[in-house]
Amino acid sequence: MDCYTANWNPLGDSAFYRKYELYSVDWDLKEDLRDCLVAAAPYGGPIALLRTPWRKEKAPSVRPVLEIYSASGMPLASFLWKSGPVVSLGWSAEEELLCVQEDGAVLVYGLHGDFRRHFSMGNEVLQNRVLDARIFHTEFGSGVAILTGAHRFTLSANVGDLKLRRMPEVPGLQNVPSCWTILCQERAAHILLAVGPDLYLLDHAACSAVTPPGLAPGVSSFLQMAVSFTYRHLALFTDTGHIWMGTASLKEKLCEFNCNIRAPPKQMVWCSRPRSKERAVVVAWERRLMVVGDAPESIQFVLDEDSYLVPELDGVRIFSRSSHEFLHEVPVASEEIFKIASMAPGALLLEAQKEYEKESQKADEYLREIQELGQLPQAVQQCIEAAGHEHCPDMQKSLLRAASFGKCFLDRFPPDSFVRMCQDLRVLNAVRDYHIGIPLTYSQYKQLTIQVLLDRLVLRRLYPLAIQICEYLRLPEVQGVSRILAHWACYKVQQKDVSDEDVARAINQKLGDTPGVSYSDIAARAYGCGRTELAIKLLEYEPRSGEQVPLLLKMKRSKLALNKAIESGDTDLVFTVLLHLKNELNRGDFFMTLRNQPIALSLYRQYCKHQELETLKDLYNQDDNHQELGSFHIRASYAAEERIEGRVAALQTAADAFYKAKNEFAAKATEDQMRLLRLQRRLEDELGGQFLDLSLHDTVTTLILGGQNKRAEQLARDFRIPDKRLWWLKLTALADLEEWEELEKFSKSKKSPIGYLPFVEICMKQHNKYEAKKYASRVGPEQKVKALLLVGDVAQAADVAIEHRNEAELSLVLSHCTGATDGPTADKIQRARAQAQKK
Q1: pLDDT tens, 625-653?
Q2: Are 100 and 88 in contact (CB under 8 A)?
Q3: Cα torsion at 8, 446, 69, 272 (round to 10°)?
Q4: CA angle, 253 then 153 then 185, to 5°
Q5: Residue 89, strand partner residues
Q6: Which residues contact 182 (CB under 8 A, 6 or more apart)?
Q7: What's the pTM value of the predicted model, to 2 decimals?
Q8: Between 372 and 628, where is the model more confident?
Q9: At a CB cut-off of 8 Å and minimum separation 6, what does 306 contact?
Q10: How many other C-beta atoms are found inside a 10 Å radius of the C-beta of residue 412?
Q11: What does UniProt give as the signal peptide span (predicted)?
Q12: Which residues fall within 8 angstroms of residue 706, CB to CB, at 6 or more apart?
């Protein structure tokens, strides 16, 4: 243990800091880091180096080289920079490289050097070049802030949703600030800058002068400033060699340290651990690294070569030409276990386990000591927690073996934390491997989450490892394996050296029917890469027509899209394709396409009936469908034409179509309608009133109601209305007019073809029993009982029923016998039934 703590450095009495190597790297750099623009992403992210940046002493013909490496030094991309001079580099939260140029353009590249997009930081930059820039991260995303030649600041808090904000002007600012940084306060990004001995805070509305509380006197300039990883704390390096540390709101001072070095540092970053009360700042010069905090002494390291600092959530990464190291505060659990002469329960448990492996009785002594104090659960938990913060796998195993040993002597210790730590460390050790190059700590891993880590593995095209992690952690397929396979397939379609057939087959063999995988998304990526035929082949595996059709339309494969839409049985989808085809093809080709698709043609006709009548007529003409064409003209005659002449002309066209369709009935009926319309117009002219658009029966009825009996009879003869129908019409009309004498004359004009029961019914409907009784006596024998019952003569109806000896009539009369008054009649019917049964 004493050897294990050899690289621990105390800072005051309450904290230790240690620096250990992550990787031994071989960059093969031709220039020092000081001659490169450098950008390293947090959370063990990639490193970008822009070699030979634009300098006056360099020959303008030399093109700079942009190189991207993993944290372990494995090359990921390298290409000549062919655009304008670059001011600053930085990584977004999605691990996209942002390159800010002097002209204000920001070029965005992927991890493998693929160009993604670009955007501009405003028109002002075109006239005043960019002097300096910062890429920063907030809860809203990744932002960019620039300082222009006019000494004005412009920023965007989220490059994914670009909204430029020009910050207020700083009064009297004539030169470039000695230092500046981004602060995130109250969900907004602010800029803190130093001009001589003064500090200014720029927000969206104003520029405010601020003063750090408790700052040592004699400061004439601020040389460097740093904000913590979580934007909660701020450090200021002054020209007097003092480092002021306090809250980012500049309302509280934490401490101040005099480093006795007045030379401006190359870098200054915070080094703090989540939920730790210790605060420390790491300051780097050319050959010296200093860790300072709330202690009278500092920790100093000698730098053998140019180094670069990368602030992390729980420490600082330090890389140079030959090594990549991590500096951080020793976690409490590790300190309790490993510090010299520690009697913490975790330290005793670790010793007990080691002695047990040696088969020594001291193991029992250590274990009894822990149990007597009742600290065995705490000891197990300390060992589990310390294992998470160890980088060396051997030490992780040693601590986990100690935890497992201690668990054996506990009855109810929950195994979840132990199992989860084993899983997490296995994942971390896998991604820390030199060939993977993501040196995540346990705290960073928990903050980043497994989903984001998987995304980063996918971004590096490490699909097998990502799938193995998903299977090992037993993640749901939709969140794990399916999603990764979909990304793999999208990458696969970009391999243009493989034939479309082979790529489609390989993707289908690998994906099959994996839930959560959309072949349409993969096909869309293939189409975006210019591989249309591959996209069509991939769409054949897509089971959802609703996903196939839109992409086929986008690829201008409309006829294939129509076939897929028809196969799906989704009418809305078919209509979508039809409307797209209508706009894409000329009229003739569109109609020819429809003729080959009967279902689509039928649906389009339904659409035209409600939306485009003229197109519907053209369809019928093209198909020589005279029957439907005739029906179309009949509908059109009533829907579109108001003048009688136009309506008759449309009906004549319809009649001609029906004759061509050999539908003589429809043709004759149409001609009769034309005759009726002409007659109705003549009746309106001669008699006034409303006749147009009445049916033949209504026309006759209207004439009778108007007293035009002769005209009504003539109309009936002209249109061959049967006598029975005419009598019904006249009977109803006269009863409505209550022309009872005229009705009686009409009934006696000749023998009624409809009988006289209708007369009784109509009179009773008009509540005229007197008139009804006149016709009841004239009703034939077979309807006599019904007529008498209608006029309320139950007794006579009974007599007739008895005379007819009809059981149905007797039952009908009996059902109308109600109350005491009809009692004798009912008895009479019962006696008649009895006599009939005797016989």
Answers
A1: 667 676 666 676 776 656 776 676 767 77
A2: yes
A3: -40
A4: 40
A5: 99
A6: 134, 136, 143, 145, 155, 189, 190, 191, 192, 227
A7: 0.73
A8: 372
A9: 32, 33, 34, 286, 320, 321
A10: 5
A11: none
A12: 687, 689
